[in-house]
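fwd from M.: "can u put these together and see what the complex looks like"

so here's what she sent:
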Amino acid sequence: MTDQMTAVPTDLGSGAGVADPDPDADGLLLDGVVKTYGGARPALDVPRLHVPAGSFTVLVGPSGCGKSTALRVSSGLETPTRGRVLLGGVDVTSTPAAGRGVAMVFQDFALYPHMTVEQNVGFGLRLEARHRPRRGLRGGAGPLNKAEIRRRVTGACELLGLGGLLERRPAQLSGGERQRVGLARAIVRRPRVLLLDEPLSALDAQLRQQARAELVRLHRELGNTVVMVTHDQLEALAMGTHLIVMNGGRVAQAGPPTDVYHRPADPFVATFVGSPPMNIAPMATTDAGRTFDAPGRRVRLDHPVPGLGASGSSTVLLGWRPGDGVIGGPAEADRPSAPGLAVEATADVVEFAGDAVVVHLTGDGMRAAVTVPARGSWPAVGDRVTVTVPAERLHLFDPADGRRLPAVGA
Amino acid sequence: MTADTEVASRAAGRRAGGRGTAPHRPGGPAPRARSWLYLGPATISLAVWVYGPLVFTGVLSFLHWNLVSDHPSWAGLGNYARLVDQPEFPHAAWHTLLYAVGILPFATVVPMALAIMLWKKPGAVSTGYRALLFLPVVLAPVANAIAWQFILDPLQGAANGLLQDAGFGPRNWLGDPATALPVIVLITAAKVVGLNLLLFGAALASLDRRTLEAARLEGATEWETTRFVVVPQLRRTAVLLGLLSLVVVWPWIFTNVAVLTQGGPNGATDNVYYRLYTYAFTFFDAGTASAAAIVISLAFAVLLGAYAVLGRRRADPGPGSGPAGSGPGPAGARPERGRSHASV
């Protein structure tokens, strides 16, 4: 069954229109898509949202950021107010949902409560057989008769470990089993793109960990394109091969998770991705971007920040990840050290989290968090500490438009 | 009533005394007695208004009594025999069945279809329609019936006026044995449809709309979505409402019959309820009327009992039960599966 699933059917796209020569357009592309629900601000406004073919793409953002709308527009459940939806380079904007070769797993799985697992999974295939009784299956694997439907339903169910549950109703299943039925129902029709709308949010914490790994493994086995929506940035970082961070109906940043994490495009992405969030505070420069000062904090750089003078601004938003800070004693503040940031502050709250310890600091009108490995020592509440961050780990943003300023260390 | 209370307190005393450990709050009655105090009002009112009359009716059905005489005489099973021997009651029973069969679609299929249509297009128009369709339910029954009398009047009625304009001859809708019962059914159906529309709407409100989207993504047409996803989820509601309607519709039918036809013409609109009323308050034959009442009650007891048994057998086993297919679990689920396989 598994090898059959990996054979991604392509005939659906080739017949429907002329292929776009742009290789980037492979996969799923929302081209200039705007979706308005009557409000003043569009729910979705993306000049270009691209999901690479074969990727596990995660759309992540706070609630109301347009990620679910993007998914629904891709599925065909919603038609965009403006713009085009391209699948494999073919314009499917006006193709009905069922004809796009996409399948979706809903947040609460939306299983048909009156059908058994087997009927739930086979419903789409039975409909297809009903609509096209004489035509073969997509992918050309023989006629879609009862035996073939049964074979494929059994195959999909076994792939997801539902073999013994075929006769059960959704009400008789646990949350994890329901999720897997939703998945089986989605993959049994061999979609080119599998859309997952917060598929893990209905599961309890322990099950979620396990389901995460199962989803990633399933993607590897099937090899098709997966688009998942989540508001959980840790889930997004852990699962995605491609990350699209959304905010206010727009794409804030797209790229591999490591890129997004290490080179966030603006303060929103910087604070949204990562836990605890990046520490960001404004700092003013006195000598054209070579040193920055704020009460209790000082940054010294080898080279001035390029472009800082050009924008006519003398302040920057300075960010650093809690994990990049190194805690030293209070004396280190006065000692001249390598280029970077030095912060003097008091340990306010200390959270032990097993492998690591999160130390929340308060200083002169500022707050910050720093993560230290739990194997070493960590400050006690009330201790004065100095935190240093090397220059190449600092993130600078333009306070006017939030633009990321060129790398500090490089 | 005094007997009731006496029995209750004696029972309470016996149990409390028997255990000897019942906690007794000082200054208050014993717990057992207190619980009877709470249950008292409901028990007494049930006894007076439901069980008492039922027993009284049962006793009456074995007596000859004209409602006023001080000396009812023993009839044995004579009243029941009369119900069977004389043609009126079997005739009325047969017509009652016709009423039931006639009302059933208006209790199930029609309001379900209307409710689904209104549900699919939510909005102000849909809400307005729902209110209009519900309106007949709240109209005063007798006034409503009299209004229909005017409309259906063979000479001056609006119904014939409209039909004549359309080129059909006038008919005596309520005077013709062929049309009288269907007309009563239709007039009553307006109320049944309005009420059940509301209840189907409530059932639809709890239905997960995402299952419709899932079906759409799987290629189901609008009709297939309705037929294979929405309607099956309303099946239980439809069965329950069908049954409930057959229990509660009779007062409405009775009013329409009493005002419009008095069971006529030639018994065409007669039914067991109207017959019972005639026995009691036209012929002052309390015994036969009581016998009829007991027979009707028993018939409904059988109907509801059958529903309860069927409903229990259909109910899904809990999540803790063994894998379906190996155990005796979902016996009722099997044929359903066969059906949807065959239909999709």
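replying to her w this: The two ends of chain A are 50 Å apart (CA to CA).
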